[in-house]
Design a protein that fits this description.
The chain has 134 residues and is an alpha+beta fold. It contains 4 helices and 6 strands. The chain has one domain: 60s Ribosomal Protein L30, Chain: A (2-Layer Sandwich), CATH 3.30.1330.40. Strand 2 and strand 3 form a beta hairpin. Helix 2 packs across helix 3. The longest helix has 18 residues.
Length: 134
């Protein structure tokens, strides 16, 4: 089996090792990012929903940056939302702060009943920037 090319954001490697998963894997020109939630540095949920969504995007953007990407490189998004009927509007008003301009990535939204104490999770696939060999 080939060794996984793992991407760790600064300052959070211990949290990922404790929970036994990789934040992101580089493979075949793409970056596959694990679901990101609005967790504080100790891993606990940010209690206020808007702040939790912003923190989830901040955590996502830290991983993208560690791989040399930005949200503009994202081609596919999956979001998981607890109780979307009551939380969707609050969550969706935050997205334009991070989403950028069209053309937007593809999107799949999934309503769930539980996210380990969180209300929102986002996972993405990004195209790694082309490198030019000199």
């Amino acid at each position: 089996m080939a060794k996984r090319d793992v991407v760790f954001p600064a300052g959070r490697q211990a949290l990922y090792e404790k929970n036994r998963y990789s934040p992101a894997i580089r493979s075949n020109g793409f970056l596959f990012v694990s679901g990101q939630v609005g967790s504080r540095p100790d891993g606990s949920p940010e209690p206020e929903l808007e702040a939790q969504v912003r923190l989830a995007f901040d955590n996502l953007n830290a991983i993208l940056a560690a791989a040399g990407c930005t949200f503009d490189d994202v081609v596919d998004v999956t979001v998981f939302i607890v109780d979307p009927e009551s939380t969707f509007e609050t969550i969706w008003k935050v997205l334009p702060e991070y989403w950028g301009n069209a053309p937007h990535p593809t999107l799949t939204g999934i309503g769930v009943t539980w996210l380990y104490g969180f209300q929102f999770e986002i996972k993405v696939i990004a195209k790694l920037p082309e490198t030019i060999d000199g």
